[in-house]
Amino acid sequence: MTTEFVKIDYNKDMESQLTGAAEIIRRGGLVAFPTETVYGLGANALDPDDAARIYLAKGRPSDNPLIIHISKPEEAEKYCFVNDIYSKIASAFMPGPITVIMKKKDIIPSKVTGGLDTVAVRCPSDPVARKLIELSAVPIAAPSANTSGKPSPTCAEHVREDLEGKIDLIIDGGSCQIGLESTIVKVSDGKVSLLRPGGITVEMLEKVVGEVNVDRAVRERLPENVRPEAPGMKYRHYAPEAKVFLIVDDGTPGFIGRAAEYINSRIAEDPRTGALCCSEICEKLKGKYIKDLGPKTDKTEHAKHLFAYLREFDDTDVSVIYAVTEDESGIGLAVRNRMLKASGYNIIEI
Ligand code: TXA
Ligand code: MG
């Protein structure tokens, strides 16, 4: 299959640039498109055969359900049984980087939900994503537009690396604003559980819905015999080819100096050692493969660069990577969660 490309010009009318893409969705094709979180690989969410093509293109296990994307929060009630908490979340954060899981209605094929009786619903804020959904006139099922197991794509070039020749169209809308996938919450029996941290933080959610239970899979590897709430949590994710070790900033005085000293000692032993950490540590490092995530306190910036850097390591002969994670407040929890997964939960003490 030949994959077509469209580059979006934000100064021009959006509709005329996206009519062709919406046409492809309606006739059963696959379209990769930008969102404010990461790029998605979209198809008509109401057609089980189209959903099946998504799984095939990504090499995704068929029990891992897809998120359906809608252009207005009110549309959710066509596809699932909405509740008060959804309404609160929708008026506070939608359109935006949050996904809510609720009981599905029959119109959503079970292929889309991996056989579950729930469906994940998201209304993205990105103007390209919204216009595409609106013009398609169907909800769009879209996982991240990467090959299963790779970091999610945060620019069109990442999508091309993984999916060129396997999908109909890639819409290039530049780099994603947030860089990590949406926050996922599950609402059942009036309780809210956080299954995946993202741009809408626990602190932001708690102001609107009260107590939020952070699922244990956010911070630790689940034992083999425990079934995760979000099936996607059990699969290996975001891992570069080199082994990743995670160092947690414990907030003690002198941590930056100690972390730099430790990583420099590893680089001295093997120059193919890589590092992924804040600017303050990077400034002290002497090595070939240093990735600067940005100033220590600017975790929004860390989120934006993390996935691109993980991909870049794979283009080098880096042998081992030391990543440093900051505190869990705000978007820090999401950054740490993705770093934990990239490292296979491999935390080391220094
Ligand atoms: O930001 C995002 O959410 C991006 C963009 C494209 O919107 N999409 C995304 O989709 O990250 P994906 O498929 O890569 O991740 C969706 C996660 C998976 O871990 C999946 O298991 C979980 O959501 N999920 C989807 N539907 C679910 C359901 N009904 N119950 C539990 N987990 C669900
Ligand atoms: Mg994904």
Explain what you see.
It is a single chain. This protein has 350 residues and is of the alpha/beta class. The chain folds into two domains: 4-218, DHBP synthase; 243-348, 3-Layer(aba) Sandwich (Rossmann fold), CATH 3.40.50. The chain is built from eleven helices and 15 strands. The strands form two sheets. Strands 1-8-2-3-7-4-6-5-9-10-11 form an eleven-stranded mixed β-sheet, with helices on both faces. The protein has a four-stranded parallel β-sheet with strand order 12-15-13-14, with helices on both faces. Helix 1 packs across helix 5 and helix 10 packs parallel to helix 11. It is globular, with a radius of gyration of 20 Å. The mean pLDDT is 96. The structure holds threonylcarbamoyladenylate (TXA) and magnesium ion (MG). Threonylcarbamoyladenylate binds at residues 35, 37-38, 40, 64-67, 99, 101, 113, 116, 118-120, 122, 142-144, 181-182, 184, 229-233. Magnesium ion (MG) is lined by residues 143-144, 152.
Core attributes:
350 residues, alpha/beta, DHBP synthase, Rossmann fold, eleven-stranded mixed sheet, binds threonylcarbamoyladenylate, binds magnesium ion
Helix content: 25-40%
Count of runs of 4 or more consecutive helical residues: 11
What spatial form do the alpha-carbon principal axes imply? Answer: globular
Distance between the termini: 50 Å
Cofactors and ligands:
threonylcarbamoyladenylate, magnesium ion
Structurally, the number of domains stands at 2
Lateral arrangement of strands in the main beta sheet: 1-8-2-3-7-4-6-5-9-10-11
Biggest sheet features: 11 strands, mixed
CATH topology of the largest domain: DHBP synthase
The low-confidence parts are none
Strand count = 15
The first-level CATH class name of the largest domain: Alpha Beta
> SSE order in H/E notation?
EHEEHEHHEEHEHEEEHEEHEHEHEH
Structural class: alpha/beta
Name the CATH superfamily assignment of the largest domain: DHBP synthase
Question: How much is the average pLDDT?
Answer: 96
